[in-house]
């Protein structure tokens, strides 16, 4: 993946962003956090990265996270209308994550090659098409197709936005201000946090199809803003690294998508495992490794990962953390409706403390200089929240539900910004964007695994027993994450400060 063009993960203002120019040939890296070159940096940066440039980037960048969580409080209504259970509705979750996991780095490379404005506008049009397909889908299969299209379309915004900011930094000769990158981060975290409440409101007032239809006006607004305010793509030069290969490595992308699809289909049927799928998944993964080690510009830089243990451990933490978070996010909402007896709107309101806690902690995490402390607190809250979930029953008090949700909102904000800061500090200087893209892929893999576990533990209906099993898994993984975080020497201030 091209460095800088695939920064799909959320980068908080507290992260140490290297090389504001985006690569060799750009302006020199700032001397320290927040430092810029030249006189009058604040005024120049404000004019270059103003509201007109940022408005479409922020709007487009929130479409993926809000759609990843907004559907949580509409799954029961969808399953009821199409007469399918939780194991089947899990496809609506995993299909989008699979498309996003492959589309994010691929579209980032494409943005570097043909221009970020073209990729951004094409993504917005694709989101419009997905919204129409989902809103009018007569069958459950077509609804899954709409989620795949939605995953591809929404995956374009983040890498295109980062490429636009990098190009603007090169044009002005100034690093992208940290507060600008922080706005992208907070837009993604906040939209993901309010997604369940928004989805419940739409499902309760206009029906679950509104959860798909709302993408049409949002995408059209982002498209109009992009056409009016984003700078035109250069005709004879691309805003990527000088001398980097232009190949998109289509074979590497296809092998990765094939291996991930086989694994996803296997995970979604854990109650009745399709063991033969493991053979093609293993073969495709093996061929992928062989090809990536021989390609001059690989889709996934395995050599960089093999020599960077701290970065690999950060990916592991990200994947495990979001495995627990998404198990709770999707599992809790279904349990509230089917076991507790709440409506879609009521379920969204009950999950509101989780959303508020996630948004507040994202602000705190973005302003925290250290990494180990917020990640340790996030792991502890995962374990503690899972313990509270073990005490919940369909007839339990409302205050217990609100407290349990709030506990799981804390790691959503702290883990995202903490792991992002670690990625920026641990990644090679010329590969921060590629490393950030892989962090988002690790998050998607956690979400896909969570979908399979929910289908296995709930079956056709969410109940107390399934929720308690989810809590046991979450508690075990929370304790494991706590140990991994405390034992990771790569998170020491000295190690992070020196980089890799």
UniProtKB/TrEMBL annotation:
Keyword Membrane: yes
Composition bias, Low complexity: 28-41
Protein's membrane topology: Multi-pass membrane protein
GO biological process entries: response to antibiotic
Keywords: Antibiotic resistance, Membrane, Transmembrane, Transmembrane helix, Transport
Subcellular location: Cell membrane
InterPro entries, per the entry: MFS (IPR011701), MFS_dom (IPR020846), MFS_trans_sf (IPR036259)
GO CC annotations on file: plasma membrane
SUPFAM superfamilies the UniProt entry points to: MFS general substrate transporter (SSF103473)
Membrane-spanning residues: 57-78, 119-138, 144-165, 186-204, 210-230, 251-271, 277-293, 314-333, 345-366, 373-392, 441-458, 470-487
Keyword Membrane attached: yes
Residue ranges with Gly residues bias: 1-26
Region (Disordered): 1-41
Domain Major facilitator superfamily (MFS) profile, chain residue ranges per copy: 53-490
Pfam families for this protein: MFS_1
Any one Gene Ontology molecular-function term assigned to this protein's record: transmembrane transporter activity
Protein name (record): MFS transporter
């Amino acid at each position: 993946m091209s460095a800088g063009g695939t920064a799909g993960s959320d980068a908080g203002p507290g992260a140490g962003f290297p090389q504001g120019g985006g690569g060799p040939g750009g302006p020199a890296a700032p001397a320290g956090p927040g430092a810029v070159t030249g006189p009058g940096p604040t005024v120049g940066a404000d004019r270059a990265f103003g509201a007109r440039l940022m408005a479409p980037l922020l709007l487009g960048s929130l479409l993926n996270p809000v759609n990843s969580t907004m559907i949580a409080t509409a799954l029961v209504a969808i399953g009821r209308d199409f007469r399918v259970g939780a194991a089947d509705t899990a496809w609506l979750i995993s299909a989008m994550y699979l498309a996003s996991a492959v589309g994010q780095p691929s579209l980032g490379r494409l943005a570097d090659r043909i221009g970020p404005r073209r990729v951004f506008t094409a993504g917005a049009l694709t989101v419009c098409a997905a919204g129409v397909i989902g809103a009018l889908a007569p069958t459950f299969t077509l609804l899954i197709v709409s989620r795949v299209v939605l995953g591809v379309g929404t995956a374009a915004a983040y890498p295109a936005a980062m490429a636009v900011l990098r190009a603007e930094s090169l044009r002005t000769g100034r690093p992208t201000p940290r507060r600008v990158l922080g706005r992208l981060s907070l837009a993604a975290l906040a939209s993901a946090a309010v997604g369940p409440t928004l989805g419940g409101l739409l499902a309760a007032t206009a029906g679950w199809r509104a959860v798909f239809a709302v993408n049409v006006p949002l995408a059209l607004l982002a498209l109009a803003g992009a056409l009016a305010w984003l700078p035109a793509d250069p005709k004879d030069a691309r805003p990527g690294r000088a001398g980097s290969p232009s190949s998109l490595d289509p074979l590497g992308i296809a092998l990765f998508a094939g291996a991930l699809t086989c694994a996803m289909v296997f995970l979604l049927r854990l109650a009745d495992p399709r063991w033969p799928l493991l053979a093609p998944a293993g073969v495709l993964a093996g061929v992928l490794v062989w090809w990536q080690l021989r390609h001059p510009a690989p889709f996934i830089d395995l050599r960089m990962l093999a020599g960077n243990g701290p970065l690999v451990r950060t990916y592991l933490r990200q994947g495990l953390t979001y495995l627990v978070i998404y198990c709770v996010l999707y599992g809790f909402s279904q349990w509230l409706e089917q076991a507790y007896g709440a409506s879609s709107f009521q379920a969204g309101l009950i999950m509101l403390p989780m959303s508020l806690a996630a948004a507040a902690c994202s602000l705190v995490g973005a302003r925290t200089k250290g990494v180990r402390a917020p990640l340790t607190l996030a792991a502890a809250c995962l374990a503690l929240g899972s313990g509270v979930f073990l005490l919940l029953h369909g007839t339990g008090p409302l205050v217990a539900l609100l407290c349990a949700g709030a506990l799981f909102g804390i790691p959503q904000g702290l883990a995202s910004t903490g792991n992002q800061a670690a990625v920026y500090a641990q990644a090679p200087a010329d590969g921060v964007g590629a490393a950030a893209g892989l962090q988002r892929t690790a998050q998607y893999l956690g979400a896909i695994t969570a979908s399979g576990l929910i289908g296995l533990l709930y079956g056709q209906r969410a109940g107390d027993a399934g929720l308690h099993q989810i809590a046991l898994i979450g508690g075990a993984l929370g304790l494991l994450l706590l140990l991994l975080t405390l034992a990771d020497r790569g998170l020491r201030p000295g190690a992070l400060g020196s980089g890799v």
